[in-house]
Structure prediction request, 341 residues.
Amino acid sequence: MHTLEKLRDRASSAVGLTGTSSHRWASRLINAGPVVALVILVAVFSIANSTFLTGGNLQTIGSQLSILLVLAVGMTFVILLGGIDLSSEGVMAASSLVFVLLASNDRNGNNFGWMAVAAGIGTGALFGLVNGVLHANLRIPSFMVTLGTGAVGIGVATVLFGGQPPRLMDASLRTWGVGSWLGVSALLYVALAVLGVALLVQRYTRVGRYGYVIGGDEAIASLSGINAKKYKTGAFVISGTAAGFAGVMASAQLDVGDVNIGKNLLFTAISAVVVGGTVLSGGRGGVLKTFVGSLIIVVLGNGLILVGVSPEVQIAVQSVVIVAAVAMTSWPLRRRVRVVK
Prediction:
């Protein structure tokens, strides 16, 4: 464990996040910035609209957060490696159709119950495994691999779709998707459980802890005897599994299997990871930061709707926030380059 901490320190130094007082100050700013931004957003929207902090709206925020959080948490493991997973929408689509068509539905006579949930999640894990193997072993850039497998996922989902979305008829699964407990969406409890498991994986398993070292400097990781290919593959499996789970959750919530079940969620999930403070070049961040980033994205979107901002302006505001977050997280890296030069 002590050796691993040294490796993480060396990797952090390699990306310019330790050393001088200015670097340490920038690191503290990155850590505190998203939380401060979230508090400010909540305060502003609470003043601007009295319904923002009502129980009904908070339940809406929780429901909107659940699927995004699961997807973004899985993607965090890949981004920590300095990679990217662009297959999420296709994986969600394929997992959605597999899940609904194996559960009780209006298209066929299947009724595998909760086994259908496992099949949907397993579909995502399979896509993740393919992504990881192709990227890690064949050294194909992650954006190219995942863009291709995402298209495959859409193709598989389109074939299964058959021109009309199959409806989910299983009462227990439908209740799970739209039900609540103590005024909180059932899916939010699921998402928080996923977050808890991901946090344990990140902190107490080699897949999670070595991810920081590999993302900080893969050369250092390799010289230290870390099998980067193995742990890269593991990270993509986690991301694919999370995308499959998100597809299942979305289908349970909407009661249908749909090719477009994950439409527009890819950009939103990446935004949540980056806004939370995880660096796109890898080596710094984590799932707790992604949780904060997901909250910021959802609160921002919800608040803008409540104050009557037009959809076009909403997109512009969200884009500005994302660009600002990327600039903040990238500043220490640019600073490091200037120091080296």
